Amino acid sequence: MNFSEVFKHSNQLCRISPNGKYLATCVQYRLVIRDFDTLQILQLYTCLDQIQFVEWSSDSSFILCAMFKRGLVQVWSMEQPDWHCKIDEGSAGLVAARWSPDGRHILNTTEFHLRITVWSLCTKSVSYIKYPKACHQGIDFTKDGRYLALAERRDCKDYISIFVCSDWQLLRHFETETQDLTGIEWSPNGCVLAVWDTCLEYKVLFYSLDGRLLSIFSAYEWCLGVKSIMWSPSSQFLAVGSYDEKVRMLNHITWKQITELDHPSTISNPKIVFYREVERRPVISNDDLSAHHSLTTGSSLFSTQSKYEVSSLPAQVPVIKPDPDRPNPKIGISAMAFSSNSRYLVTKNDNMPNNVWIWDVQKLKLFVVLEHVAAVRCFQWDPCHPRLALCTGNNKVYMWSPSGCACVQVPIAGHFQVLSLSWHTSGQSLILLSKDQLCVCYLENKDS
Amino acid sequence: MGDWKTVTMPEPLPVLDLSNYGPTSVISSLVQTLPPLSQNSYNLVSAFCTDENIGQCITYINQEISSLGFPPISSDTRGNNDLNLVSVLNVIYELLQLHKKGLRTMEDMETEQLKSSSDMDHLQNSHSKLKEQLELCRRENKSFQERERQVHLKNKSLQNSLKNEKEEVQKLQNVIASRASQYNHDMKRKEREFGKLKERLNQILIDKKDKKMAIEILNYVGRPDGKRSVWKTGKTEARNEEEMYKVLLGDYEHRLKDLMIENAELKKVLQQMKKEMMTILHPQKHGFKEKKEESIDPVASDDEEEPGENSKEYGLDLSCELAREKLTNSIRQQWRMLKNHVEKLDNQAALMQMDVQNECNVVSREIHEEEVDKLKLEIQQCKDFIKTQQQLWQQQVNSPCDEETSSLLQDCYLLEEKERLKEEWKLFDEQRKNFERERKNFTEAAIRLGHERRAFEEDRASWLKHQFLNMTPFIDRKRPQTSKHPCAFSASTEPEVRNLHSSPQTMKSVVTNIPTPKSQSSLKMPSTPDLYQTLCLIPNKSSPEIQPKRSSLQDPNVRMYSGELSTPRPRHSLNSDNYFIYCVSRDENTLK
């Protein structure tokens, strides 16, 4: 594992272009474009204000920078550095900006979710979409970029509009059987739209592309319901994480539950591997205190080293009791992710923040549990291999693959706390982000 | 009463006090008091009887006594008070007696009294105790009743409170429901207002012709696909619809294909399972049935197989309901059979386990049986031996006894006879061996004779041939061939012959003898019938195990001959060559 030098960034704004060639970082009001391989600066753009949001277009030829405070969006081109575009939402305000899948339209959501403005970079045309619903995930494009599903709210009822992205024509518009729709998500094959209701009610609905209701799934009533939803890359399964600390897997044929993945606080099944991070403070002998040594190990002297150890079973998972009086209690499955080959599912239960659970999707059984000293901040699967990278807000990167797991200390002097990470599309390198710095972590090629 | 008694008892009773003894016992008390009176009278003579009033006393006493029913103590005939001494004494005596009696009764009475009083005391005590108990019980009862009442009261109050609580809950639920509905209503109202505001804001934004809201762009870029955007028309809409349905259809087709593949795979697995089940079941079934009914079995099994075959074919080709049903049914049936079979095996296994433990390494059944037979034989022999020993023992022990001696003698005879028989057997055996030897000699002689005859025939044949060839025009050509001929044969026949005559005992001598005449013998074929006859004379006594061996050896040799045959035949067009070659092969056969 090799690490690059450190670069500055602000607001955790750092994106790799979809083709993997460029790395865009924002430093206050400057946008820095680097070549990913050499990390040389290719372009440097200056925006009108502090950048709050950055997004690459799907073909990696444009990048948009949003400045919500000003209601501004600026677009830059990779091919023509002189080219520039500025979109001003004016008094309507701006809360969100995103590319359309074709990379030639920008969808701006105005304040109060008054409307969504669709700006085109090809023509002068501007379209509006009214009544977008302000919710967790109210807008979703299909993977192939052909259709856009948008949650709407009119007359206290939820609707979904499906648009054809090529000409922004409304294809379907239908009412949903929800109290207060919270999110929508297309299946990866773009044929089924999963819709889930507010957390007060456990309700997941499946709509076909043509607006037919395929099925409704509800596991229980009278309790806080769905917390997160994730399609498997093969569109075969839908994992539904809920506040009752369970993940339910639904199949794509009958839309019924296949299995229930429980997150028990005691792990006793001997087939499960329980990795526990064990911290070791370096023992400093008198020899180590010599000036020479302290110079070389200066950075690691004050930090602790840690490693994974296979814990003997049965093992206890530390549980945090959520405060019942506060809204959005810290309990339940908040994050899930399928590995690229659909073989593994990783989940995180909010009241066991230090643990990450990896499930074998073939067997539908718990496979590995990782326990860390600190709460897990972020995890992400390698886009090419079944390999999971995660961070816990300290100076280490944790990796898991079916063959084992490791934690690696980031050998950077000073205070580098990994708050989030993201894989390069090739799956061979990884960007680590601390509060205001970033570095690239290169993994050894398996072939070499 | 007791108190009173204790006071009075020790003191001498004064006469006047006698009346105090209760009205009922006046007489008895008088009687009782008399003796002490008489005693006391000695001291108190002056008090009652003095010299002066003796007469009066007498009369008084007399009166008294008579009133008491005693004979008078004085004869009152003359008016004088003459004491009739006898009667006085009698009276006194009687009085004394009475007194004594009285005393005794009194004692009894006293004891009785004591007893009864103690009884009384006891009873009184127990009575009081019981009374106390009763009281206690009553009190307890009261307390229980009280408690019950209290509990009842409490229960009632609790029920009341429960009812109240329930009402409260109901009320609260109603409140919650109403609040919820109110909240929902308010929410809706707010949302509607919010919507209206949004609308208004939107309107304002549009009306205002917001100058700020704009896009500044250097130049418009081309679409990624390079096409120009199209006008929105009904056509595009239709096209969009079409495309959407295409996507959906594609997805469904894809899914259908997946399902078909999965289905086919499952079917394959099912078929394979079925086939395997059949293969597992059928040999077993055959074996099982053969044991029971050999003649009926094959037909029945064929019948059973047929539907299975049919369904298999159907299942592979079509997936129609009927075929599927058939397939599943047959599989189910077979599965049931398999299950039964496995269960049976399980049972057997349970039984076999002990046997298996005994003989860990598996011995083939034949060996096992042989072993068992041997052991049985041995056991039989041992038993016989033991019997004879016992008999001998008994003979020795019971020698004096007459009857037993006779039996013993009999046994002796038997034994003797046995011995004799054995000897005879030996003799017989020897004779047989001699016979066999002779037979062998004879056969050898016969063979030799046959050879000689053959040699002779050969000679004759060669002579004839010579003669014949001399007559034909091929003389010069024939020469080399004849020289070639025997060697070709010798190569092939020699090992052959060795095999032919490999009857174990005589083999060696024959082998040494034969090679030379062999070449001739093949020429002497016409005589084979004779030889055959002579050989037929040899009884088929030769051990049967050798025969198959020979035949097995012979077959390849015969083939070799035929192989040889094919090469020389084109060379000589002569029939005679073919002929004797055939004969050789026949000869081999006959030699068997």
Coarse morphology of chain B: flat
- Average pLDDT of chain A, rounded to a whole number, is 87
Spans of chain A of at least 5 consecutive residues whose pLDDT stays below 50 are 288-300
Tell me the helix content of chain B. over 70%
Low-pLDDT segments of chain B:
1-42, 287-317, 477-526, 536-592
Largest sheet properties of chain B: 2 strands, antiparallel
The strand count of chain B comes to 3
In spatial order, strands of the major sheet of chain B run 1-2
Report the strand count of chain A: 41
Can you give the mean pLDDT of chain B? Answer: 70
Separation, N- and C-terminal Cα atoms of chain A: 13 Å
Question: What do these coordinates show?
Answer:
Chain B: Keywords: Cell adhesion, Cell junction, Coiled coil, Cytoplasm, Cytoskeleton. Chain B: Pfam families: ADIP. Chain B: This is Synovial sarcoma, X breakpoint 2 interacting protein a. Chain B: Belongs to the ADIP family. The complex is a heterodimer of chains A (448) and B (592). Chain A has 448 residues and is an all-beta fold. In chain A, 2% of the residues lie in helices and 48% in strands. Chain A contains two helices and 41 strands. In chain A, the strands form ten sheets. Chain A has a six-stranded mixed sheet, with no helix packed on it. The longest helix of chain A is centred in the middle third of the chain and has 6 residues, at 291-296. In chain A, 42% of the residues are buried. Chain B is mainly alpha-helical and 592 residues long. Chain B has helices at 2-8, 26-43, 45-48, 54-68, 85-207, 234-292, 297-317, 321-358, 365-397, 402-471, 475-500, 507-513, 515-523, 528-537, 546-566, 568-571, 575-591, and strands at residues 74-75, 82-83, 214-217. In chain B, α6 (234-292) packs across α8, α7 packs across α8 (321-358) and α10 packs across α13. The radius of gyration of chain B is 75 Å and the shape is flat. The interface between A and B is large, with 48 and 42 residues. β10 (84-88) of chain A pairs antiparallel with β3 of chain B.
